[in-house]
Design goal:
The protein has about 220 residues and is of the alpha/beta class. It contains five helices and six strands, in the order E-E-E-H-E-E-E-H-H-H-H. The chain has a six-stranded mixed β-sheet with strand order 1-3-2-6-4-5. It starts with a strand and ends in a 14-residue tail after the last helix. GO terms for molecular function: adenyl-nucleotide exchange factor activity; protein-folding chaperone binding.
């Protein structure tokens, strides 16, 4: 049994002394006991119960003597006495709304996790793009297959992003990662052109660079 005391006064009689009533509230398998003024309304009782159990007032239905009571009805005028029993039920429509909200939140969290995974892969790929850009800027020719493979890997991440169903903030994150992929692919397309203009390094053999010793005829090297 949980006991708490709450005082609620009728607004049109702020200075009139009013007795407190102890209400026994049954909510499913739980039992609560609260203290309110006898001239409180059932709407005010709902506010007390919101603080007690966390269920919002618009989600509550209060049953007294087999009848659902309206927010504006006063306890004393409805015959509520000390230790009277009131049944609290959750409004069915609010249960459905909460279920929908829970599913929506779960969907958003799942989208955030999926986008985060793709983002980490894109981070790795953009590092490779930077490495290729540095090589080409330094005049070092990069194998073309390395560039085309990297483009394909980036496009796979773009496909993954397209398959993620996102709402709210997740949509913004999804779009941001999509722009990163697009920017990297465009950069590689430009680098591919620059890379094609770089002449491959010519490797010479040792005999082409070998000079005969001084005072020795080149023909003497073959004796």
């Amino acid at each position: 049994m949980i006991k708490k005391k709450f005082n609620v006064n009728r607004s049109d009689q702020p200075h009139a002394p009013t007795p407190n009533l102890r209400l026994r509230v049954a909510y499913g398998g739980l039992r609560y006991e609260i203290s309110v003024n006898s001239i409180a309304t059932f709407g005010e009782v709902k506010k007390v119960l919101t603080a007690e159990i966390g269920l919002q007032a618009n989600e509550q239905r209060l049953i007294f003597r087999g009848k659902e009571r309206e927010n504006g009805e006063y306890l004393d005028r409805c015959g509520v006495k000390d230790r009277s029993k009131v049944i609290l039920m959750q409004d069915p429509s609010s249960i459905e709304r909460r279920f929908i909200e829970m599913r929506r939140n779960a969907k958003i969290q799942s989208a955030h996790r999926a986008i985060s995974d793709v983002s980490m892969e894109i981070d790795k790929l953009t590092e490779q793009v930077s490495a290729i850009e540095k090589s080409i800027t330094d005049g070092v020719k990069v194998p073309e297959v390395q560039i085309t493979t990297l483009i394909e890997m980036l496009m796979r991440q773009a496909i993954k992003l397209d398959g993620i169903s996102a709402d709210g903030d997740a949509t913004a994150q999804k779009n941001l990662q999509g722009k990163r992929v697009q920017k990297s692919v465009e950069a590689l397309d430009v680098l591919k052109i620059s890379n094609g203009k770089i002449k491959p390094a010519v490797v010479t053999t040792k005999w082409e660079t070998f000079d005969p010793p001084p005072n020795m005829s080149p023909w003497e090297l073959f004796d």
